[in-house]
Amino acid sequence: MIVTNQEVLQQLTSKRDIVFKRLSAKPLSGFFADEYNSLLSGETFQMGDDKDEALNNLKKHQDDKTQDIVFTQKVNSVNRLSESEIIDGFSQSWKLAFNTVSDNDLRTPMYAALLNYDAYDLPAENNLTFFGNTEFPELSVPQYLPPSLYETKVISLENVFDFSPAWPDCEEFDWTTEFIEVYFELQTLFKLHSRILLHKALARMDENGSLASLQQRPFRFYIAEHDMEAGMLYTLK
Fold first, then answer.
1. Computed from CA positions of residues 34, 35, 39, 45, in that sequence, does the dihedral angle turn out positive or negative?
2. Which of 23, 35, 126, 205 could pair covalently with 117 via S-S, beta carbons 3.0-4.6 A apart?
3. Phi, psi (5° rounding) for residue 36?
4. What is the C-alpha to C-alpha distance for residues 56 and 4, in angstroms, rounded to an integer?
5. Strand bridging mode 112-117 / 219-225
6. Helical H runs in the chain?
7. Can you tell me the distance from the alpha carbon of 178 to that of 60, in angstroms, rounded to the nearest whole number?
8. What is the 3-state secondary structure (H, E, C) of 72-119?
9. Of 222, 209, 225, which Cα lies nearest the Cα of 3?
């Protein structure tokens, strides 16, 4: 089944919106309250620490409202990022990559590229790999790419992108990881949003002819977090 770029954008947006809705549904203290009630009822099993101690800690954070406003502001900040500047930056990174490929005067036709990024606290560490001809999957859902794809690797570029403008610092909520998952969900929110902006950067470049150097059609762009399943990002047709 061929996945259109509109469908890809809709999928990316839906995934981001699901995380945003979950994080914006309640204040930070509300997530501690949920975990407290889950542990108290036996729905959550306590590993390691004494259950009473864990309940006391959760109750303390449940009753502490001092971080609620800061947390809500951090969640909502995904809507206040400078999208146009981030898209401009991503566009420049794509252009740099394509120019580097052209400068290498490669004779092998390329049909796909995979952008693989590292952990949230390493926003400038990533890898962009271009592949030759093989059978490419149309990823309607995330999945690991077939080994046959990697056998056709033509060139790999290191650290072309800097995700820092799209991945704001969330370290002020690192302390919550002992009890709840919101710190990692915050990171997921911004990572998913950055995929949307990467897609929009490619769409804009496609419209203005900046991707003409990629001559093979269809040309597929995939994206993945390190050691995770890949998803569709954009397709040139």
1. positive
2. 126
3. -60, -50
4. 51
5. parallel
6. 5-24, 28-41, 51-63, 68-76, 83-103, 147-150, 182-207
7. 14
8. HHHHHHHHCCCHHHHHHHHHHHHHHHHHHHHHCCCCCCCCEEEEEECC
9. 222
Contacts of 112 (CB under 8 A, 6+ apart): 130, 131, 136, 149, 219, 220, 221, 222
The model's confidence at residue 106, banded by pLDDT at 50, 70 and 90, is confident
Contacts of 34-39 with CB under 8 Å at 24 or more apart are 34/180, 35/179, 35/180, 36/62
Q: How far apart are CA 109 and CA 43, in angstroms?
A: 55
What is the pTM assigned to this prediction? 0.94
Q: Positive or negative CA dihedral for 44, 50, 52, 55?
A: negative
Cβ contacts of 21-28, under 8 Å, gap ≥ 24: 22/185, 23/75, 23/182, 23/185, 23/186, 23/189, 24/72, 24/75, 24/76, 27/65, 27/68, 27/69, 27/71, 27/72, 28/67, 28/68, 28/70, 28/71, 28/72, 28/173, 28/176, 28/182
Cα–Cα distances in angstroms (integers) from residue 55 to residues 31, 35, 129, 174, in the given order: 13, 9, 48, 20
Q: What does the pLDDT read at residue 48?
A: 61
Q: Average model confidence (pLDDT) for the chain?
A: 93
